[in-house]
């Protein structure tokens, strides 16, 4: 049991003294291995990404020209709603959980996740949740059509009959996230290798630790909100029904009390990923590690006291508007610290621009653009003009697509050689990056302008003056969408026939995961590794 | 080798957070009501106002314009109007205004009016000693009902509020009311 740390990754070795994966489907159904579950999460997330992407392309096809071309307004509403729900809960969040599964144990020197069976359960309820939610699109009355924020009474009094399935699906997604988070926290708190102190943990581990606490704090609030909806719909209560003494505005408060931390849940792990990748390709330690940790914690704290900036126009007293405005603007400070640190890490570094680095640098630039438009939206008097326009759409797509999504792609390129032991095709990777980068900007940049000019979001038709911006936007969306098939091809090609990768993979890579052979053996760190300073974060 | 025992304790602590936050979501409902009552947010006008007329002094030095707005909520087919669009009152003076509803449909229906006052800072000074919004209205087909509403604007109303708008939204609650005939309206 002592000499198994290195060089034991041969899948054909069926001598089960250190048992490898099961054969066939059972391996995936019953697996408790963090690497298998990470893989499941990532493939699930990619599937959802493609489905959500198809819905987005239906939206952009309809908006290519003014007038109603392809779909009915009711169906259009289902497309926007499900696009949002699938991308948020089905693509971005499971991708981060998948990355955490793969990487956190390897990064802290643990043999597996702390609660492996819970891990299996938290993945396997997701396919059921999403099959159920997507199946509502084919039911009588259609699927969710009330926007991904499902404001009551649109989602209660005026909802399609299928809303109950939607509520159940959200409950399942929440349960999955909560169990996943408990697992990640328990792993990080209890299973770090000796010497891996908190302030030596890689930033991806730090950001996930904080994200997991955010999830534990707000997913139950979401569960509460949908439960109240369920009661209003089926049991005659009036939580959100004004006629019975309830208040629809209260729904918005509860939703955004969940919703704002939720948007940081989708970006903090991205910060962690970028903080791993940039030092590798700048060949310098991360600038300001400690400040990165504190900035992440500050952002997480502030995320709980800014929710009402999503609802400035709802009729709020001046004091409330001012409080939420200043609290929101405050977030720019820790976020600015992060951007400053990334730029300083690159400063005078020996930089090379392999695909992960391209995505990471694009993340820094484009996420910052999204951050700035967020600041504009935070300013109350300006928000009255921007509210519910395409400017908001442009803002949150800039932080979520070239933000969260680019970080996930960067992570896949960066760690794929470690996962499957083979390199991806660098020139195809670069092609994928440039198509994505150009596509994303063509899609979302014009939406700032149409929004400022007054185009409302969530509409299937629009006045003629917005025609050009929308046409450009749609062209960009199709470029971006189809270039993701290249990503799929590229990953499959790497897995099947990529060049073998070395253990270190990138010459500037630091961290325990790079001390393992490539591909990482099915069971790693069954004996805790020695954490040297060279292998810690800096 | 694998340190199992403390995982259970960690997990138990984390479950506590989850349970606590689920409870917090439900606690938000009463908290929200208390906050709205304290601040007048949402323009709620409170329950039936009981007071001793001797203690309220009429402020003859100023007049406040009180406007009435009547809406029927989407899909509510009744007609709903006030006898006049607005009145001028002295703070501290009791005033009665009549509202009317007519059920033009061919079925028995139940309506519930929900009030709201702007500006928000006036809400806590707007008191109703009698209001049709404290109960539900049951109208037979074609029936019209006269509904009195009596109010006082508190003399403590800030000087910089010359105008108060009282809006009523009329909801069709026939279905809910049929389920729970005895159900009391909770909002005044």
Task: List descriptors.
heterodimer; A: 538 residues; mainly alpha; 16 helices; globular; B: 188 residues; alpha+beta; 5-stranded mixed sheet; 4-stranded antiparallel sheet; 3 helices; 9 strands; 34% strand; flat
Euclidean distance between termini CA atoms of chain B: 65 Å
**What characterizes the major β-sheet of chain B?**
5 strands, mixed
Reported for the largest beta sheet of chain A, the result is: none
**Class by helix and strand content of chain B?**
alpha+beta
Biggest interface, CB < 8 A: A-B, 41 and 39 residues
Shape of chain B: flat
Strand content of chain A: under 5%
How many strands of chain A? 0
Spans where pLDDT lies below 50 across 5 or more residues of chain B: 180-188
Main sheet of chain B: which strands, in order across?
3-1-9-5-7
Cα-based radius of gyration of chain B, to the nearest Å: 23 Å
H/E element order of chain B: HEEEEEHEEEEH
How many angstroms does the end-to-end distance of chain A come to?
31 Å
Number of strands of chain B: 9
Beta-strand portion of chain B reads: 25-35%
Question: What average pLDDT do the residues of chain A reach?
Answer: 93
Describe the structure.
Helix content of chain A is 65%, strand content 0%. Chain A is mainly alpha-helical and 538 residues long. In chain A, helix 3 (73-108) packs parallel to helix 5 (163-190) and helix 3 packs parallel to helix 14. Chain A is globular and about 65 Å long. Residues 1-16 of chain A have low confidence and may be disordered. Chain B has 188 residues and is α+β, with helices and mostly antiparallel strands. Chain B has three helices and nine strands. A five-stranded mixed sheet of chain B has the order 3-1-9-5-7. Residues 180-188 of chain B have low confidence and may be disordered.
């Amino acid at each position: 049991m002592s000499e198994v740390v290195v060089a034991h990754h041969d899948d054909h070795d069926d001598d089960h003294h250190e048992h490898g994966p099961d054969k066939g489907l059972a391996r995936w159904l019953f697996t408790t291995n963090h690497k298998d579950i990470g893989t499941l999460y990532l493939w699930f997330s990619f599937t959802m990404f493609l489905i959500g992407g198809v819905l987005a392309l239906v939206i952009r096809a309809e908006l290519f020209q003014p007038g109603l071309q392809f779909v009915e307004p009711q169906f259009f509403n289902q497309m926007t709603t499900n696009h949002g729900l699938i991308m948020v809960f089905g693509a971005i969040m499971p991708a981060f959980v998948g990355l955490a599964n793969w990487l956190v144990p390897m990064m802290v020197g643990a043999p597996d996740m702390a609660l492996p069976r819970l891990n299996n359960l938290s993945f396997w309820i997701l396919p059921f949740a999403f099959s159920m939610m997507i199946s509502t699109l084919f039911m009588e009355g259609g699927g969710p059509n009330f926007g991904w924020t499902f404001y009551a009474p649109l989602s209660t009094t005026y909802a399609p009959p299928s809303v109950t399935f939607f509520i159940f699906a959200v409950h399942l997604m929440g349960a999955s996230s909560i169990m996943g988070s408990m697992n990640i926290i328990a792993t990080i708190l209890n299973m770090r290798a000796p010497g891996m102190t908190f302030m030596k943990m890689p930033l991806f581990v730090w950001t996930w630790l904080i994200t997991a606490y955010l999830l534990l704090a707000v997913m139950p609030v979401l569960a509460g909100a949908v439960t109240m909806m369920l009661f209003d719909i089926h049991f005659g209560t009036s939580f959100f029904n004004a006629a019975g003494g309830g208040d629809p505005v209260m729904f918005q408060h509860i939703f955004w009390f969940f919703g704002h931390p939720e948007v940081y849940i989708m970006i903090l792990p991205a910060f962690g990923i970028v903080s791993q990748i940039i030092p590798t390709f700048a060949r310098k330690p991360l600038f300001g590690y400690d400040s990165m940790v504190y900035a992440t914690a500050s952002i997480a704290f502030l995320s709980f006291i800014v929710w009402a900036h999503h609802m400035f126009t709802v009729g709020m007293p001046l004091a409330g508007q001012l409080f939420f405005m200043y609290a929101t603007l405050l977030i720019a400070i820790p976020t600015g610290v992060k951007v400053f640190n990334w730029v300083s890490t690159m400063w005078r570094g020996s930089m090379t621009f392999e695909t992960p680095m391209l995505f990471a640098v694009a993340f820094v630039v484009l996420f910052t653009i999204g951050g700035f438009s967020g600041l504009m939206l935070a300013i109350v008097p300006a928000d009255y003009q921007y509210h519910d326009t395409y400017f908001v759409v442009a803002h949150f797509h800039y932080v979520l697509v070239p933000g969260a999504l680019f970080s996930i792609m960067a992570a896949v390129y960066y760690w794929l050689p470690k996962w499957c032991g083979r390199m991806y095709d660098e020139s195809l990777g670069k092609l994928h990056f440039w198509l994505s980068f150009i596509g994303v900007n063509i899609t979302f940049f014009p939406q700032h302008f149409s929004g400022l000019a007054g185009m409302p979001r969530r509409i299937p038709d629009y006045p003629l003056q917005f025609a050009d911006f929308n046409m450009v936007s749609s062209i960009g969306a199709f470029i971006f969408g189809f270039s993701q098939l290249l990503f799929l091809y590229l990953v499959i090609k790497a897995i099947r026939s990529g060049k073998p990768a070395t253990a270190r993979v990138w010459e500037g890579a630091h961290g325990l995961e790079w001390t393992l052979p490539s591909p990482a053996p099915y069971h790693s760190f069954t004996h805790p590794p020695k954490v040297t300073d060279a292998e810690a974060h800096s | 080798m694998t340190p199992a025992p403390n995982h259970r304790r960690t997990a138990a602590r984390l479950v506590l957070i989850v349970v606590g936050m689920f409870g917090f979501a439900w606690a938000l409902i009463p908290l929200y009501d208390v906050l709205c009552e304290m601040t007048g947010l949402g323009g709620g006008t409170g329950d039936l106002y009981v007071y001793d007329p001797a203690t309220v002094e009429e402020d003859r030095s100023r007049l406040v314009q009180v406007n009435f707005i009547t809406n029927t909520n989407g899909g509510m087919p009744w007609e709903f109007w006030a006898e006049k669009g607005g009145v001028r009152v002295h703070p501290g003076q009791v005033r009665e205004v009549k509202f009317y509803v007519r059920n033009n449909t061919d079925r028995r229906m139940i309506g519930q009016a929900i009030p709201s006052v702007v500006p928000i800072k006036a809400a806590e000074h707007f008191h109703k000693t009698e209001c049709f919004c404290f109960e539900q209205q049951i109208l037979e087909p074609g029936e019209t009902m006269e509904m009195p509403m009596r109010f006082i604007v508190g003399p403590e109303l800030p000087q910089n509020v010359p105008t108060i708008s009282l809006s009523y939204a009329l909801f069709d609650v026939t279905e809910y009311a049929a389920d729970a005939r005895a159900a009391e309206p909770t909002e005044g």
